[in-house]
Amino acid sequence: MKRRITSSIGTILILAPVFSLWLLSSPSESAETAETRAGFPYSVDIHGAPPEPPDVLRLLREVSQSFQQMDDPPPSMTVLKRRATGDLPEMEKVLRSFGFFRGNVSMEIIPSKSESDPLSDPQNVQGMPDFSQPPPNTVTVQFSIDPGPRFTFRQPSITLAKGVSLKALPPPSPREAGILESAPYLAKQVVEAETFILNHYKTSGYPFPKIAHRDVVADFADNRVQVRFEVTPGPHALFGDTDVEGLDRLALAYVETLIPWKAGEPYDSRLVDSARRTLFDTNLFGMVDLENPGKVDEQDRLPITVRLKERAPRTVRLGVEYTTDYGPGINGAWTHRNLFGMAEKLTAGAIFNSRIRTAFAQFDKPMFLSKDNTLIAESAFNDETTDAYDARSVDTSTHLKRRFSKSFWAGGGVGFRYGQFRQEGTDPYTTYQLAYLPLTVTQDTREDLLNPIGGYELTLSMAPYQDVKNEDTRFFRYLLSGSTYYNFNSGDKVVGAVRASFGQVFGIIHDQMPADLRFYAGGGGSVRGYAYQLAGPVKGPVPLGGLSMLTFSLELRFKISDTIGLVPFLDGGTAFLDTTPDFANQDILYGAGLGFRYYTAIGPIRLDVAMPINKRTGVDDSFQIYVSIGQSF
To answer: What backbone phi and psi angles, to 5 degrees, belong to 19?
Structure first.
């Protein structure tokens, strides 16, 4: 006996979107309880679910309103029966979506032993109810699963529809589309195969392919499922003219440079998607819409209309922070994203707290000599009064950054830094005038910089320095830093985060190295639990910094609700006096603590409380508090 399952996705595919609803943890398969004094409490027991694939039980629980609403018990047995009975067809859809077409689900409401025999409790010697305890679960809703055999694919086929020219692009094979002969049936694979077929044509010059006919037929005689697709590719097309609408202040030439296709090239939907992402990523537009007329012209060309809405070119950002070591602080920046009409960006800002006063400006010129190049000129004035030194400096640099891919870029340039510093309040200032050649290489696959939940970032920054007034002062400094993130489920409920950095200075001894260019560890962006720059060698209360540094951090980010999160963390690290770290004679300093996160539209607000594990008498406080916007890394 054969049974036609659907001709248009149908009921067996209706569960496909549910596959995206994965949960990190799920209750055990044994009866699970909702204890409550209100309503008609009950437990749910689902047994008999097939062990393979393991997602069957997960989805059975997901579609069961009885299971999902255990913490909201119904007012009566009648409502409970109605709730449980409504679960039966949904559970059977889940079974069919995994190929258990003979599957059956039955339901029974089983009274508890205490309900049927109130005197059966051996501890209740007087036969009286114990009102001091929460009411017991009065019933168990038991779902019994009889899955039957799992059907497999048989002779899947993908063919051109009748009447289609044989000159048209052949369709992909079932194996290429992910449907294998004799493989266990899965509705999700049928949906994915259809998407693959359409993309096969859309990326090969056919903008309007259609699935002319789809057949999914289950043969109950041999427990097999035959899947057949018939495809109408539609007309072959070339890209036509591209019209850009909605520009106000931005030059048309800038947008045209970002369009990845040329008129006359074969149509490819990947290029259209790439253009949409690229335009959004510029942060210049509040709306990006790419449209076509829905048909090719007489020359088999498909014109594209790019409709844009520019954002306001100027933004102002203000922020506040607080740390135990240097108290409250404020920061702000003003940005103009389109200074001269070609997306030139100018940013000016300042940071102010009791230890650090900084003013900076940066000018970015995109598409400098090449589409993938950005010329960056920046200057900063720093006035720092820390436990390690008093220092003032002016730093200016110009460098060229080239993007080689979406996630990888590198750059280099020239810079000059003029500064004065002293380590003791009564010491005279030491002046330096350093010319340097900054080089940077970055690989960054993170999607959200304020709240990353996946990907990684790895950066190598290095520069040789030469004092233009003192030829004996020269050194090479580099810092390698990285972070990675692991999402334990498909959402962001539990995310593991790891960060590490290591740096060294070559060619100079410790005492000749400018104090404000040495490596330091400690503080909210380094080893939490220790004050700013204090996680390292000290002379009395004064941090000495070092010619090398190692730091690392481990975090486990739990998102309790949409707005609340908790983050236990462990940090470690120190600065070393010499270029080569002396692990034998200098201990790594550790700090541990707990963070609180309040998630907002602009990023999480962070509150971290950390304690030094290796507390040094007279140097370290018992704890440190850090408040800011964004994750710690």
So the answer is: -60, -20
